[in-house]
Amino acid sequence: MNILLNQMLANADPAQVAGLSRFFKTGPGQYGEGDRFLGIKVPVTRAVVKDCWRQVGFPELEECIASEYHEVRLAALLALVEVFRHAKRCPVTAGHDVRQQCVDFYIAHTDRINNWDLVDLSCYPLLGEWLLDKDRTLLYELARHGKTLWEQRIGMVSTMTFIRHGQIEDTFAIADILLHHPHDLIHKAVGWLLREAGKRDKAALEAYLRQAAAGESTPRYRTMPRTMLRYAIEKFPEEERKSYLNATIA
Asked: Does domain 1-115 have CATH number 1.25.10.90?
């Protein structure tokens, strides 16, 4: 019996389905086209996962991540994060093995991580945490060669963990890979992570914005998408923010 799946199905709320479908853009031609919902909001999903994650293994997670329902896939990812987190408390050998299994599972199922919330609630507490003391080429490859915009977003958002440990260089480097990406969900993600890096080191963010990217001659703030810039400078003082938006910064 898959307790996680059963509990999620038991919490379905048909009255919420239409609203969630609109919110996650499931209409024709939209980024979430065709996705299906049970009508379960994130706090309820988190509560189910909190109660159930210890009772599920990889076969149950496999069944859930394969679900046609958005919320069940989210539950699988949140449960995976919990398994990963608690594996750190295991003896070194066993804990490392479980954490590696979690990362392998995550990477093998990126085709099922197909909306921004699924990415943002799972990638940095798992993939970002795993790579904190490891080579980070994987994130660069996802950003540069990801098969979907979701894989590219994973490459960017996973750097949140590095930022929280005072490591901001990868955020800037991966932002450059995605600097001229065509999709607004990447613009928002890049701008968000740049803003977070700027909270750690405002001078570094300003230098990034005022300098040109490799192979370019114009400062990044003049060439990046407007949404990306707005997100990046959101915490700047009002007058300074206006100067960037109006391209009058000294």
From this structure: yes
Interior angle at CA 114, CA 108 and CA 234, nearest 5: 120
Mean pLDDT in the chain? 95
Q: Find out whether 70 and 78 touch, Cβ atoms under 8 Å.
A: no
Instruction: Answer whether residue 96 shows pLDDT above 80.
Output: no
| List of residues 6+ apart from 250 with CB closer than 8 A | 243
pLDDT at 91 over 60: no
Tell me the angle at which helices 202-210 and 169-177 cross, rounded to the nearest 10 degrees.
Answer: 30
Within this chain, domains 1-115 and 122-250 share the same CATH topology: yes
User: 107-126 burial by CB neighbour count: b if 16+ within 10 A, else e?
Assistant: eebbebbbbbbbbebbbbbb
Rounded Cα distance between 129 and 32, Å, is 27
d(CA 178, CA 124): 18
Contact 77, 116 (CB under 8 A): no
Does the predicted model carry a pTM greater than 0.85? yes
Q: Residues 6 or more apart from 185 whose CB is under 8 A from it?
A: 31, 116, 149, 153
Is 15 in a helix, a strand, or coil? helix
Residue 204, helix vs strand vs coil = helix
**Averaged over 25-47, what is the pLDDT?**
96
**94 pLDDT higher than 70:** no
Q: Confirm if 35 and 114 have CB atoms less than 8 A apart.
A: yes
Domain over 122-250 is classified CATH 1.25.10.90:
yes
